[in-house]
Amino acid sequence: MVWAMKGAAMSDGNGRNDPNQPGYQAPYDPSDTRDVGSGKDFGADLYDLYTAGRVAFPEKAALFSGWASSAHDFAQRTQFLADSVGRERSVLVVESIREQLHFALRDTSITMRDIGAALVQVATDFAQTDEAASAEFNRLAAADPLLSAPTPQVPVPPGSDAPYSTPYAAPSLEAPEPETPWPFGWLEGQVDDAVDGVRSGVIDPLQDGLGEVVDAMEGSMDQEKTS
Predict the structure, then answer these.
(1) Which end of the chain has less neighbouring CB within 10 Å, N or C?
(2) Does residue 138 contact residue 50 with C-beta atoms inside 8 Å?
(3) CA nearest neighbour of 152 among 67, 210, 89, 65
(4) Half-sphere exposure (Cβ direction) of 223: Cα atoms closer than 13 Å
(5) 84 DSSP 8-state letter
(6) How far apart are the C-alpha atoms of 152 and 154, rounded to whole Å?
(7) What is the dihedral angle through the alpha carbons of 36, 39, 45, 48, rounded to the nearest 10 degrees?
(8) Which of 26, 60, 61 is CA-nearest to residue 44?
(9) Count of alpha carbons within 13 angstroms of residue 212, beta-carbon side
(10) CA distance to 66, 78, 86, 88, 102, per residue, from 94 (Å)
């Protein structure tokens, strides 16, 4: 690919500004005699390719990279399920589907990133072959707000051995404590308050048997909860 090699060499420091940064202007090189197109229409086509490569493809690649990361992190859940149920076949099938989805998303992200870079290289390399095309390219690019920022960075999608970006907190497998049914829960609170009041002297028993009644109620409720 002669054009790719030539474009890469020029973008590495032969007087050409960075096509991935705001304000890029495609230079016209009169010594480049390749016949790849000419005129304003050609410049507009190159601008469309450049915008797709600089904005659309990197943004979509970043989106797929995030989805790949989520699919990778989901492996923690399938591993927990497999360990919990003894690696049942249904769980293994789910894990296989998750793994395929992970790598499909990962490969798509990388491919879209590379396509975007290739489109930028094609557009900027060919724009220098025609003066009218270069001028039209530059006019359209300068007026486009989408090009006011550098090319979006695409996070490298994780491989199978990558650390998890969101560690999974596995739920406890222990059975929860049974809740005290109403009205026993409310009565229990009332009895506890009465017991604390009588024993601390805040509540003055109106008769000697009040403390015994409270103790009897507390014992009855404990028996009800355990039965």
Answers:
(1) C
(2) no
(3) 65
(4) 6
(5) H
(6) 6
(7) 120
(8) 26
(9) 3
(10) 20, 7, 14, 10, 12
Q: What are the tokens at 27?
A: 């230079």
- What's the rounded Cα separation, in Å, for the pair 46 and 39? 11
Kindly give the confidence (pLDDT) of every residue in the chain, 227 residues in length, as a single tens digit, with 9 standing for 90 and above. 334 333 433 344 333 577 778 877 777 777 877 666 678 889 999 999 999 999 999 999 999 999 999 999 999 998 888 888 776 788 889 899 999 999 999 999 999 999 999 999 999 988 888 899 999 999 999 999 999 999 999 999 999 899 999 988 888 767 666 765 655 565 666 667 766 766 676 655 554 455 555 566 566 666 665 66
79 closest CA partner among 160, 177, 193? 160
Distance (Å, whole) CA 55 – CA 63: 12
pTM score, whole prediction: 0.61
User: What is the Cα–Cα distance from 92 to 112, expressed in whole angstroms?
Assistant: 30
Quote the CA–CA distance of 59 and 23 in Å, as a whole number.
Answer: 19
Residues in the chain: 227
Q: Is the peptide bond before 19 cis (omega within 30 degrees of 0)?
A: no
